[in-house]
Amino acid sequence: MLRVIIADDHPLVRIGQKVVIEANGRCEVVGEADGPDELLALLATVPCDLLVTDFAMPGNQHTDGYGLLCLLQRKYPQLPVILVTMFANVATLRASFARGARAVVAKSASARELPLAIDAVSKGQTFITEHLRMQLMEAGTQDPAHEPQLSRKEHEVVRMLATGMTVSEIAAHVNRSISTISKQKSTAMNRLSISTDVDLFAYARRSGMVP
């Protein structure tokens, strides 16, 4: 019997996950946590074979999903982690796999895909939610750890955008046209498989471009 701990700050999500996880009769949910604090306490006292966790949950510590993944990787390097998140984009996928996650499942598809992810991870494989697999293929790679490289100018445009500058302000600052800066921003986002400014700013922070 595979022992599973689940963590999500929404009780209804945990109820649904428990039903899905235990449906095949090969898994047992041995603990539930509503945030990072309770999760870390559980992991310290309850043996488990697999962790299914949300990405970002409120708490007193490690509310940032990447910080929590890094801590889990340091303290429990042998524990497979499945991330079930509403922030299912390629940037989050790459960063999560780099921090030790073995699977990323979109919350919108969790009822269908979570059993598949558990099966894959229990066999030592990785799992990527379907729409992200398609995005990776469109980007020309199926390797979730492959981080595309921006050109020097694209990197600088992304960095300045993340500091709060507008496209017009960047164009004036570097003495280039607005259309050129807009194109470099668009190219960078396409290269990173990022579709929103919020995700672009998150990428810039995660990459150390801005504090």
From TrEMBL:
SMART domains per the UniProt record, alphabetical: HTH_LUXR, REC
Tagged with keyword Zinc: no
InterPro entries (UniProt xref): CheY-like_superfamily (IPR011006), NreC/VraR/RcsB-like_REC (IPR058245), Sig_transdc_resp-reg_C-effctor (IPR016032), Sig_transdc_resp-reg_receiver (IPR001789), Tscrpt_reg_LuxR_C (IPR000792), WalR-like (IPR039420)
Response regulatory domain segment(s): 3-122
Taxonomic superkingdom: Bacteria
Keyword DNA-binding carried by entry: yes
Gene3D superfamilies documented for this protein: 3.40.50.2300
Modified residues (4-aspartylphosphate): 54
Stored SUPFAM superfamilies: C-terminal effector domain of the bipartite response regulators, CheY-like
Annotated ranges, domain HTH luxR-type: 143-208
Protein keywords: DNA-binding, Phosphoprotein
Protein name, as recorded: Response regulator transcription factor
Organism: Pseudomonas fungipugnans
Lineage: Bacteria, Pseudomonadati, Pseudomonadota, Gammaproteobacteria, Pseudomonadales
